[in-house]
Amino acid sequence: MDPIQKQMPMLNLPVRSAAALSPTVPAGGKDSERLKQACEDFESIFVDFMLQQMRRTVPENALFGGGHAEQIYTSMMDSELSKSISHQRGLGLADQMYRQLMTTTAGKEKKDP
């Protein structure tokens, strides 16, 4: 196993392939919704990573003992919490990315015949 993979546990988040998005996304329609969903998924991964790093700073409590089961539970809880955060109001990262990508792709559409 790669040393980087050992340090970063697998994220249990639905990640959509970037290849699934067309290179030029029209201003409306199905591709626009897919772009919005991809941006929300990216924000969810970012929030999950942030929660993992924040959890590492909290000392373990001797009362609950920790252990492998608690690590699995907190990992799953963080994943679901990050999905919930990003699909509701979120941090604003998904909206900002969506707006930036829409203006970028709109500019490409105008240049392409």
Describe what you observe in this structure:
With 113 residues, the chain is mainly alpha-helical. The chain has a domain at 28-106. Helix content is 63%, strand content 0%. The chain has helices at 3-7, 30-56, 68-87, 93-111. The longest helix has 27 residues, at 30-56. It is elongated, with a radius of gyration of 18 Å. It starts with a helix and ends with a helix. The model is unreliable at 11-26 (pLDDT under 50).
Task: Explain the layout of strands and helices.
Layout: H1 3-7, H2 30-56, H3 68-87, H4 93-111
Helix pairs in contact: 2-3, 2-4
What is the structural class? Answer: mainly alpha
Order of helices and strands: HHHH
Number of helices: 4
Report the C-alpha radius of gyration, rounded: 18 Å
Low-pLDDT residue spans: 11-26
Quick structural summary:
The chain has 113 residues and is an all-alpha fold.
Which features does this protein show?
113 residues, mainly alpha, 4 helices
